[in-house]
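> example.struct
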């Protein structure tokens, strides 16, 4: 979806990789979208340039490098700062022949993908009995797209935004203020300092605040009690779904997603030393702490 709009608008030409200049996809990403993008670029014969903030897990950087992406990392900066990693990606694409900035945050083809795929998948798999959806937000594409599709199918479906520490979206949807909640989060790729185009005008009913304590505890419960090896963003999603279940009561079908794998966070989320540094070791149920990396 993100690449095809560049082809359709003739921003990128489908040349052979050996023809100059080679087709190039450029993206600013915390890592996970970039991993998907470089897989697709490899299949299409494109080059892939990834621009990242320098606070993401080492495993994601190594993963992208192994896949063949050209990686550039930048200090964390506000979105409108010219040194922000997204602004750097945009600038690079504009100055590189036959390159396209996929712009996952504000390219509404992202939302369209979930209107056409994820939303219908939820509808089919629940046989239309879905009562609520709950998602954390990075670009806003998943929540924006799924809420748009499902509300059109069934107006009574409730849509919830689950927000981590340090993001503005909880306060925006609860109080109308772009004001960050306290602290920073161990989660990666979610939380925002603005409302993206993929999220604008999406039919969001309610926002939930999910503390890192809840997300970390749920992440380890998912691993040791359910057999799902996931990252903290997935833990946050499920913790948010539990909040919604308590709000709505028994007998409801509540949908969220497990959106990342734990293997990309071994030196952060699954590290005793890192959890101690972040004052989060206590959030891991005591019987599961023996399995942490030192």
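> example.seq
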């Amino acid at each position: 979806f993100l690449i095809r709009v560049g082809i359709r608008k003739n921003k990128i030409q489908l040349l052979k990789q050996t023809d100059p200049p080679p087709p190039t996809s450029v993206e600013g990403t915390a890592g996970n979208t970039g991993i998907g993008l470089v897989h697709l670029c490899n299949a299409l014969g494109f080059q892939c340039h990834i621009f990242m903030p320098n606070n993401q897990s080492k495993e994601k950087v190594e993963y992208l490098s192994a896949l063949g992406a050209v990686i550039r990392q930048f200090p964390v900066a506000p979105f409108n700062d010219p040194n922000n990693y997204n602004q750097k990606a945009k600038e690079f694409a504009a100055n590189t022949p036959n390159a396209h900035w996929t712009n996952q945050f504000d390219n509404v083809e992202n939302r369209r993908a979930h209107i056409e795929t994820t939303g219908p998948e939820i509808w089919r798999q629940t046989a239309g009995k879905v009562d609520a959806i709950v998602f954390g937000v990075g670009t806003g594409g998943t929540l924006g797209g799924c809420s748009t599709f499902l509300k059109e199918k069934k107006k009574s479906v409730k849509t919830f935004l689950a927000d981590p520490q340090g993001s503005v979206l909880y306060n925006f949807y609860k109080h109308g203020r772009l004001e960050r909640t306290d602290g920073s989060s161990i989660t990666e790729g979610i939380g925002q300092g603005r409302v993206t185009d993929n999220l604008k005008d999406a039919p969001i009913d309610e926002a939930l605040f999910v503390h890192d304590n809840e997300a970390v505890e749920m992440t380890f419960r998912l691993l040791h009690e359910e057999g799902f090896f996931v990252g903290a963003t997935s833990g946050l999603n499920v913790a948010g779904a539990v909040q919604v279940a308590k709000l709505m009561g028994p007998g409801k079908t509540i949908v969220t997603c497990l959106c990342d794998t734990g293997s990309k966070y071994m030196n952060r989320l699954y590290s005793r030393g890192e959890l101690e540094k972040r004052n989060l070791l206590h959030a891991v149920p005591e019987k599961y702490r023996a399995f942490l990396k030192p």
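> remarks
Residues 130 and 156 are 9 Å apart (CA to CA).
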